[in-house]
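Hello forum,

I keep getting stuck at the same step: I have a sequence, I want structure tokens, and every attempt I make locally crashes halfway through. Rather than fight my setup again tonight, could one of you with a working pipeline run this one for me? It's a single chain of 165 residues.
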Amino acid sequence: MRSHVLFVSGRSSDARRLSRMLHDLPLVVDHAGSLRQARAKLRQDEYEAILTEADLPDGRWLDVLQLVREGPKEVEVIVTDPQADAHFWAEALNLGAYDLLAQPFYEPEVRRILYNACSRPAYRAMPATASLNCAPLARQAHISSAASLGLAASTAAAASSHMLV
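Reply #2:
Ran it on my machine without issues. Output:
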């Protein structure tokens, strides 16, 4: 069974390149050129992951994250940006993104992150009245991921010390 990924980007050339990168993985890439188009696609289809540019023609990555939170199914949101630094990485994770990818895309990293995001077990949406703080676990998982990516341990620790719990 193939997982579906929505790529939200104002550049269709990036969507074609992303599809070529992932052609031999069990992932199907769909493209939305704007936040408005992403909203329509999320109403029509189900996705396991969304890869969104930080800045969109009609919004920002936080708007995409809000769309996902309003939906019935948990979908992993991965943010991509040319200025992907440790500060932005920590902010994105703290606000609920699955991960952050730098542009231009590094194919092995894109493949690994999208495949892993789509392979996570499905979770039931929690009732609006429920409260669960998983930030410490998520932070530890992403710090381990950062270390495996070759980021210095001090950078990962500095990033996590700026995260809100």
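Residues 123-165 have pLDDT under 50 and may be disordered. If your local run keeps crashing, start a new thread with the error log.
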